[in-house]
Amino acid sequence: MSTIETPRQPSEFTVGVEADLPPAPRDPKKIRWARRRRAITGFWRVYRKNKMGMVGLVLLGVFVLVALAAPLMVSPDDLRPATAPGISFQPPSSEFPLGTDDFGRSVLDLVIYGSRISLLVGFAATVMTMVVGTAVGITGGYYGGRVDTVMNAFTNWFLVIPWIPLAIVLASILGRSLYNTILVIGLTSWAGTARLVRADTLSVKERPYVERARALGASSWHLVTRHILPNVMPVIFANTVLTVALSILAETTLALLGLGDPLSVSWGTVIFDAFDAGALSAGLWWWLIPPGVCICLVTLAFTMCGYALDEVLNPRIRER
Amino acid sequence: MRGMRRASLALGLAAAVVTGVAGAAFGQADEADEGQLTLHVGAIDDIVSVNVFKACCTADYEMMLLNYNMLHGFSAEDLSPVEELTPGCEPSEDSMTWTCPIRDDATWHDGEPLTSEDIAFTYRFILDNKLTTFSDYLPYNPTFETPDATTLIWHSEEPTIAPTVPPYIPILPEHVWSELDGKPAKEIRAFEQIPLVGSGPFQLTEWKSGEFWRMEAVDDHFFGTPTIDEVVFHVYGNHEAMVQALNSGEIDFAYDLSPTLARSLEGDDNIEVNVQAANYHTNLAFNFGGQAKAHPDVYGTPPATDETNHPALHDHDVRLAIAHAIDKQALVDTVFQGFAEPGDTFISPDKVFWHLDVPQEEEYAFDPEEANRILDEAGYTEMTADGVRIDPESGEPLVLDIVSISNSVGSARSAELMAGWMEEIGIRFDVRVVSESKAYEEWENGTFDAYVWGWGGDPDPDFNMSVYISSQCLGWSDGCYSNPELDQLYDEQRQTFDREARKEIVHEFQQIHYQEIPEVVLVYPQTISAYRTDEWEGYVPTPSDGGGLLFGWRTDSYMNLKPATAEGPAGGPVADEGGMSTGLLVGIGAIVVVAVAAFVVMGRRRSEEDEA
Amino acid sequence: MRSRRYLLRKVLQAAATLAFVLAFNFVLFRAVGDPVKLLIRSSLRLDPQEQALLREEFGIDDPLPQQFVNYLGDSLRGEFGYSFISGRPVIESITEKVWPTILLVGTATILSTLFGIMIGIKGAWSRGSAFDTTSLLGSLTLYSMPEGWLGMILLITFAGTLGWLPAGGIESSDRLSGFAHILDLAKHLVLPCLTLTLGYIGEFAIIMRSSLLEVMGEDFVQTARAKGVRDKDIRRKHAVPNALLPTFTLAFYSVGFILGGAVLIEQVFSYPGLGQLTYQAIDRNDYPVIQAVFLLSSATVILFNLLADILYGYLDPRVKEA
Fold this sequence. Notes:
heterotrimer; B: alpha+beta; seven-stranded mixed β-sheet; five-stranded mixed β-sheet; 19 helices; disordered N terminus; disordered C terminus; C: mainly alpha; 12 helices
């Protein structure tokens, strides 16, 4: 599994580039915010026209809503084996629209609740990836020289370690829990982000206004947080969206290998349980198909947004 | 439509690539397979090694059973020892010397005769080379004598019943293994030989690890000559694939199916489901602490603290309350889909002779109220804010650290269910799921309060009892349980020669174990198999009442199977496959041609469009 | 001259990466715990004497630096020790299982790259057409699909319901030889290979499409167009060759990931390759095997990345000394 990467060009939605600012406001903070707001509205104007991006966004919104509202729709007691509401393997009915599993839990409940875990793993692992990847990438790209050599080597190392074997080893050392799953995914996916961010930092660093700021005696911290980070942001953002998708798929793979946390209900663990029990041969399609379709849809939503972002942020492939 | 064509082309290309890669293998025409009667068996486990000293799991033992003979076999009725290489051994007055007449019609697969010398060699080989896999069957430093080819004399330093337990040791050919005598254990365990020379009714002649292993029938074995010519055991990565293979006739017998699948097969006309009486139990084994005190020398670094368990677990009332709060029937119904029996004692009911059936009125009924009453009376009346009882002595809430093992069937799900029931009685189970290796670490350091695992054992109860004696702390003991009464009973039964008298002791042992609750025996899971009835008939269960058909203690089914009469001679699946592959070949060929043509045409049309 | 230095630098980088992986592997598996303890409880009952022998054999009582040197030597010689479970030398099991995986992963990589590129080209060229939209959506969907789950469904559909293909394994046990044997192998390869191909085809199609679109926006294409060069020729001679580069490089980079994906797919289809070996090793805590697989798959990825870099360096004139 690798991220979809295309060589990126500086985009017109980056901030701080505009040479001719309109008059007022004078306060530098306000100027900055005004600029950002303008960049964002400009971005949104273009993004809105991208059909695929909008479909992805709406789909994503639905899943996030479901995940957030899950505790309102499903009582946790219904998910506990000891207090499951139904009997095992009931086919879909009005009471259980997606039938029941071996414990007699409603598969619909599992799928609704599973969205929380799957999205949580996806987002948490992505946050980890982003923080580590951005820090390493910017540090290397900004400081250059030896620091860069070290950071770059480090990134390259982690880039080649095949993630499934590493995940297997880590899962057996750390044990099986949700946090470990997140940790494993984060550890194995930050390197790609770091590489992208580094490349972008290198190009931003060379821009005249950054050089000017440096000549004026701006501190490194100021340069990184005020100039480089905001400009690298679009790249990070587009990458984030795809990383979430990949993290969700990674969680599924780990769960299907039997390395997930069997005590938490995620889409991956539901599929694993169903396959392990032989659900499809036994004709219990409602146990195995829905969680897979959900993974597919939510990942698709993320990749559609990511793809749209890519088109929007990379002017060279935008529709002529 | 275009998408479809591309997919078919992908298929065709895949075939073409394979053809290229495997092209080197191009050779002679098919070896005639016709007339061969092959039984195809599907299993999830592969054999681990053809070396008996590496035997690990069911598959290895089945291979061993077919390929070798042992001193005694097990009876079809109750698994008591019966004639195999010897009709029976006679003890001396003091039971320290046993004389076993050895049959003279046994031969090795390579034609050499099997004599008492081979048996003596095998036993000495195990003891001299410290091959711990089997050495427990040869207690009290025995020595062996062979006055002639048909007599084995077994001397023991102490009175023993070991020769009739009986020793579960495959007899090895001296003329093959003697060259390994005295070599390091590692080298002995690494020895591999195919075809594997043994003396059993079948011989292992081919093993492709991860794919299948083949066992060919031996002519004129003293067990008789089977109708089938060979058995091929196929390895499947998962239950779904195995069941699909059974449905399509690729295999005739599927061993160890998931309960869900077994249910779905019950309606099928050509498929019969066999449920094998349980031969192991799952347990909730409590930790009694004190691992640090036991043999730190053996295991290197001793654990940091002495008492790592919850102190309240030493209170019998707490264990009793937990036992009352577990709904074993619900475990059977949900975790095992009905394919299990609620457990009572630690010797599973398939060991008919030794198993103690606890009368219903003495069983710990599922009764949360009773459990609450017991805890209230025992003084666990104070509660934490979230409703967990507090141990009056230590002041600690009854929050127990429960370890469940990820690859142990039903462990996590059982733990999950129990955690729910415990809430009803003010006890909290904090369940963790760990890998087996992690579990061993926890077990060794004693850093858990209870774990959900299980135990299996031999037809003889000796091993299963040894788990609960004091000296087994950090040996086979789950949580270093110690009870002088059980220790004494264990030693007593080891030297009790009368089977009935020994049974009394074994029953008493089980009784005390049941009352003292060092573990709660949860359920006896059953092993489920399914087989096609249109291919073969004549499967024989072992033990005869509710036993399994294959993968058991006897070879009866293999010896007795005949092609099903309704269908005529077997070999249906083989013929089918031949027919199918020709069809497939033609199909793939046609698809490739069509797809290539389509691509050419499409390509041309496209360039025309471009030009337009 | 420049290219030789570029090559040298890449090779050195790859060597450094390999060294890191070796060290990482060492640390990782020391963290698992004392292998003798694992061994004691996993399958055998060993007395203290035998344990001492094993400790010696594993070299656990040596000081760490000494252990590391031994480990390095052994790894470079391809000696990965003995499997805890089967007692066989690990390298033997691996060489036995590596061919089925090469066959499976190789075929799937070739097929997915090939078809991915074709779909990508057609999509980019007829941008906005029905084909483009459908194929893009299809590619994204395939890309989003958990491969294992897809494999399960294909298994039940084609081996179960339709009964067209065998339910698992790499060959039947019927003592076939010659063409029948090859056909038998092919028949068993179809489903796992199809699953992996479908799992990766989307990615290649998307990359090819994006990179072709990008190339088409570049000046030289625009110029050619302005000069009145025929569309077909622009595509064949200018755009596609330039756009192919990132896709091919991706194919090389992806080998490691497809290898990883094969773990699950081999399990679903009972395919006796490295993936199955890995899966069983996890199940039985056979650390020497897991360790060797980890090391070898990392080395493979490093090798393929190096190949990709070299390929890139030679084919893309824009790659300069950094």
